[in-house]
Design goal:
Chain lengths: ~600, ~325
């Protein structure tokens, strides 16, 4: 018996030692070398399979509904909106894509006319040439309840006849296919400049009505599972057009193959890779490391955690890109229900948060400056809103938080003790279940506890966090710590309208998480949207940034740079507009 | 004095009987408890394991005091200044003797408080499973017939469950603020205990049933029945005391399995809720960054190994001490 026990002890010790040695063992390949990413994507090598490592799945696979960075990464490879941006482009106007040339604005800013290119075709099984009527249908379907688009009401809501609320499909009088290749839009308000600028978004990509309408009658639309492409790639499908289970296996993989009907002569995209495989379910740290040490891989929606940013910046410099995202990350407070329906409680909470700790959870100074308001650096309106110094509000003055200011606002809310003492201590948080979102959430949770709250936190996959909870007002928790917003195009309205305009609260795919109602703010948005001169728009939206900041809907904590990594043998090209790798310009060496 | 222990001792022959010679010269037999303790005392490994378990239990019970005496921060306190500029975990240092995790929380503190979660869940789940298993096993073994058939088939069905999948499914299903089963199961300890109890109690039931099938035919049961004792009295007053020894041994062996089960559930994200410390959750968070923050995985892993090993060795020792023939 004794020998048996000693054997067990020795065996256990040996086993533990083996595990430790196995985990410690293994050499690391040093990365680097081989040249950096080309910013313009010229001169890439054709062929090969590109692999994208992803944490999650589409938030919306339907290009008419897509409003998320990863969705864009795929849709801009398979769809051709009216306009798009070349990889190194950071200013307006965008590059014509499906459109033949720049848009024409007339009738005092109330009419937009766009001519389409000839020879652009739909992928199989539709196969025919794209016509203006297809773009008309694409825009109309985005206003329906079966296609939960999050931005058409913001940017295209002034089109004559556009529904005020999502509903059944109807033709919109203000969108006309004048002939096969000419699209004309009439607006009720002179907001043509911003409406036209919004045609870089994937809702303007053509959709064949005769093929799609049977899917669009379902609730929600099943077009996503049967989608057609116009871009250089398409989701792999069967002969009837079905992609679900073939080119898109939800939560597992997305496979892009070349669109046989794509004509490179009509496009500025080179489309080097023969195929692109997106593997979902990756873990952030191990996935990023695998890319750095592996072959043929790039990051998709995988946010590179701080540990790997550190490692990459020290050992794999050439394989790391940190483009500015043109956006901000913030901790949203739901102002529709207690305790954050009280502006003093919101201000107190924001003042009490250590925003450098929140930023550190994502990777520290390498990933950007601590935000003091919403419009980010180098973006139109940034300096006018106060620049890095901020808008002047005291509750955002100190990056590490200001307990005295926090206590002041709690007292103003009737809590003499300087912390939250009200009846609504229990607050709900819904967070990402993957790093770095999870780390940010843990930091936020702890800081909220210190302020007197009792956080009850749920960790869910990212697409659920937005698609089921934070982006659906009736399910929204008190706090969403993992929210972020990036430009829709290079205009400050795109940073502030969908996120803070009181008129832009949607039942689904909502991006105005705080849902603050303020008539003066709403009026300011209405006036600013109608301005056409660039500097006037920048000043007007800078003023809106100041107003929004003063209303304390959220705690902005970083104007972030988006970390992207690639394997050594990948000639990665970042698209500055989307701040991720451009699948149509990236190639294998 | 339990019949089974006495019989064991008697059947072991004179070798089992230990005697002491009193000053008057009379020979006095040692009691079964004395014999048990003597055997256990001779087993140095089992004693050491018992010592470790007692130490762990004290640490778990006195976790706040231990942390304070060691000058460590509380387990949920995040010290962002301890991290480097990239937010990477800090290694062992003067302020954090076992280092920090990747949000600046003290690993030592979390390992100590994690002992509470592990031991509480494992012991509580084992105790509840034992209670349920004993009742079912007693009933099945004593009454036999259709009751035995029904209960035994029910146990077989439960034993056929894919345990981990069941645990993950329940964990996710109850991961809402309202919980499930009318709020009886909320995310956290209640759900974890539930998913551990369900696949565990059938094992106790089967062991008890097997023992009862044999014990119910013994003379002392016949005697009790002939004196007019009710079935319930016979089961709980006559038969059950004879099951204490095997239940203790088996319970001691089940506890470490349940500790590992809880750790596995927390590792998979369906166990103890953040920010409450749990060894399994710590291992899960530490796994991706093991090569740059080895302490974050090593210390909770070491605590888990030591705890599980101690219980296993103690269980082994108890079995030897209570049933010395089994080792031959």
């Amino acid at each position: 018996m004794r020998s048996k026990k000693w054997f067990a002890l020795v065996a256990t010790a040996l086993l533990a030692l083996t595990v430790v040695l196995a985990a410690c063992g293994g050499g690391d390949d040093d990365g680097g070398g081989g040249g950096g990413a080309s910013s313009t994507g010229e001169g890439g090598k054709k062929g090969g399979k590109l692999t994208v490592l992803n944490v999650g799945d589409f938030e919306y696979a339907d290009p008419g509904a897509a409003y998320y960075q990863f969705d864009y990464m795929v849709h801009y490879a398979t769809q051709r909106p009216l306009y798009y941006y070349r990889p190194d482009q950071t200013t307006q106007p965008p590059t014509p894509d499906l459109a033949k040339g720049p848009w024409k604005i007339s009738n005092g800013g109330k009419r937009i006319t766009i001519e389409l290119k000839r020879g652009v075709k739909f992928s199989p099984p539709v196969n025919r040439e794209v016509k203006a009527a297809d773009v008309k249908y694409a825009l109309e379907r985005a206003f329906t309840e079966n296609v939960p688009n999050g931005y058409v009401s913001t940017y295209m809501g002034d089109i004559t006849g556009a529904p005020e609320e999502p509903g059944k499909y109807q033709e919109i009088d203000g969108i006309k296919a004048v002939d096969d290749y000419t699209l004309q839009l009439d607006l009720d308000e002179p907001t043509a400049a911003v409406t036209a600028a919004a045609f870089v978004l994937p809702a303007s990509a053509a959709v064949p009505k005769e093929y799609a309408e049977k899917f669009d009658k379902k609730s929600p639309s099943e077009y996503a599972e049967n989608q057609i492409a116009t871009g250089p790639y398409m989701l792999k499908n069967n002969s009837s057009g079905k992609v679900s289970g073939i080119g898109w296996i939800p939560e597992r993989s997305i496979t892009l193959v070349r669109n046989p009907n794509w004509d490179g002569k009509t496009d500025f995209r080179p489309a080097y890779a023969d195929s692109i495989e997106i593997r979902e379910g990756a873990e952030a740290v191990s996935g990023a490391r695998k890319i750095l040490r592996g072959k043929g891989m790039i990051t998709g929606d995988l946010t590179v955690p701080g540990e790997v940013v550190k490692e990459a910046s020290q050992r794999f410099k050439d394989q790391l890109e940190l483009p500015p995202s043109g956006g901000f990350r913030y901790v949203s407070l739901n102002a529709t229900k207690p305790p954050f329906d009280d502006i003093n409680v919101r201000k107190a909470t924001i003042a009490g948060l250590d925003r450098t700790a929140l930023r550190q959870a994502r990777g520290g100074p390498a990933i950007g400056d601590v935000a003091t308001h919403f419009i980010p650096p180098e973006f139109p309106g940034f300096q006018e809103a106060g620049g890095k110094a901020g808008t002047g509000v005291d509750f955002l003055a100190k990056e590490t938080g200001d307990p005295a200011v926090s206590a002041k606002y709690f007292k103003a809310a009737g809590m003499a003790g300087g912390k939250y003492e009200g009846p609504n201590k229990k607050i709900t948080l819904v967070c990402d279940d993957e790093d770095p979102g999870k780390k940010v959430c843990l930091v936020a949770q702890e800081q909220l506890s210190k302020l007197g709250f009792e956080p009850d936190t749920r960790f869910v996959p990212h697409d659920q966090m937005l698609g089921k909870y934070c982006g659906v007002p009736k399910n929204e928790p008190n706090v969403c710590p993992n929210t972020g917003w990036f430009k829709d195009f290079y205009d400050p309205q795109t940073l502030l309208d969908a996120t803070f305009n009181p008129a832009q609260v949607l039942p689904e795919n909502n991006s105005n998480y705080s849902q603050i109602k303020d008539p003066k703010l709403e009026e300011a948005f209405t006036k600013a949207e109608q301005l056409t001169e660039v500097n006037a728009r920048n000043r007007a939206f800078a003023d809106i940034d100041k107003m929004v900041t003063a209303l304390a809907p959220a705690a902005p904590y970083v104007w972030d740079n988006q970390a992207n990594v690639r394997s050594k043998d990948v000639n990665g090209v970042i698209n500055q507009f989307n701040s991720v790798w451009d699948l149509t310009f990236t190639s294998l060496k | 004095m339990t019949t089974s222990v006495t019989e064991l001792l008697e059947e072991g022959g004179t070798q089992q009987l230990d005697t002491a010679t009193a000053p008057s010269g009379e020979i006095a037999a040692r009691s079964p408890l004395e014999l048990f303790w003597r055997r256990l005392r001779d087993d140095k490994v089992a004693l050491a394991s018992l010592g470790v378990i007692v130490f762990l239990a004290l640490v778990a019970i006195c976790a706040p005091l231990v942390v304070e005496l060691m000058g460590a921060p509380k387990p949920n306190v995040q010290n962002s200044k301890a991290l480097d500029e990239f937010g990477s975990a800090a290694g062992p240092n003067a302020h954090n003797i076992l280092g920090t995790d990747d949000v600046g929380r003290d690993v030592f503190s979390r390992v100590v408080y994690g002992a509470r979660a592990s031991l509480t869940v494992a012991i509580l789940a084992t105790a509840i499973a034992m209670a349920i298993g004993v009742v079912i096993g007693l009933s099945a073994g004593y009454y036999r017939g259709w009751a035995d058939s029904l209960l035994s088939r029910g146990l077989d069905v439960i034993l056929g469950f894919p345990v981990l999948l069941f645990a993950i499914g329940v964990g996710f299903a109850c991961n809402t603020p309202q919980g499930c089963l009318g709020g009886a199961l909320k995310p956290g300890i209640s759900t974890v205990v539930f998913v551990i109890v369900i696949p565990t109690f059938p094992y106790f039931a089967r062991i008890v049933r097997g023992q009862v099938l044999s014990l119910r035919e013994r003379e002392f049961v016949e005697a009790a029945r002939s004196l007019g004792a009710s079935d319930r009295r016979i089961m709980f007053r006559e038969i059950l005391p004879n099951l204490v020894a095997p239940l203790i041994v088996y319970g001691t062996l089940i506890i470490p399995a349940n500790i590992l089960f809880e750790a596995s559930l927390s590792f998979l994200g369906v166990g103890i809720k953040e920010p409450n410390p749990s060894w399994g959750a710590m291992l899960s968070d530490a796994a991706p960054i093991f090569d740059t923050a080895w302490w974050f995985m090593f210390f909770p892993g070491l605590a888990l190994v030591v705890t599980v090993l101690a219980f296993n060795l103690l269980g082994d020792g108890l079995q030897d001490a209570l049933n010395p023939r089994a080792g031959r």
